[in-house]
Amino acid sequence: MIKTKLYFFTIGALAILLTSFQYSQDDSVKLRTVMKTIKSEADEVRKTLLEGKSKNFDYTYHKQILTANTRNKKASNPYFKTRAENYLQKLEKYNEAKDKKKSFNQLIDACISCHDYASKIYIGRIKKLYINE
Ligand code: HEC
Question: CB within 6 Å of ligand 1 — which residues?
């Protein structure tokens, strides 16, 4: 009798553990997802600037590049963190800037600086974001 109770107790505890593990997995954002969102946000901001209007980035969202999950080995390296922090600084500057177009291009420099280190294949796509005028 006690053995049966213990058995069910163990199964129950395991089930709870497994579910909470799954939830904690679901909580973790993927760097790839963050990047896709950042890219489309940058497309939108660029379009707005070209129309002569002004639009800011969502800084809180971008901060996730410091914590998001990726299998990219270089992302666990301190050089990655330095580049991410530099990027976030440029983003803050952009949000506060008067000359948005210039600051926007400086932000794209920071995208490329990290990509040159960690993920070269996307550089071609990112370069198209530059505002040349
Ligand atoms: C601190 C480093 C860093 C910065 C800054 C950065 N990226 Fe990335 N980006 C990465 C890494 C690493 C990957 C690959 C992620 C992976 O494969 O898990 C990536 C992936 C991407 C992808 C591919 C997403 C996909 O799978 O479709 C795009 C597009 C992208 N970045 C655009 C940008 C743009 C635009 C900026 C600036 C506005 C930027 N990135 C800034 C490191 C960075």
Answer: 31-32, 35-36, 38-39, 42, 65, 70, 72, 75, 80, 83-84, 87, 107, 110-111, 114-115, 118-119, 122, 125-126
- DSSP letter at 76 equals G
- DSSP letters along 16-36, please? HHHHHHHHHHHHSPBHHHHHH
Q: Which two tokens stand for residue 14?
A: 């395991």
Tokens of 117: 């280190």
Low-confidence ranges of the chain (pLDDT < 50): 26
Structural domain boundaries in the chain: 29-127
Residue 27: per-residue pLDDT: 60
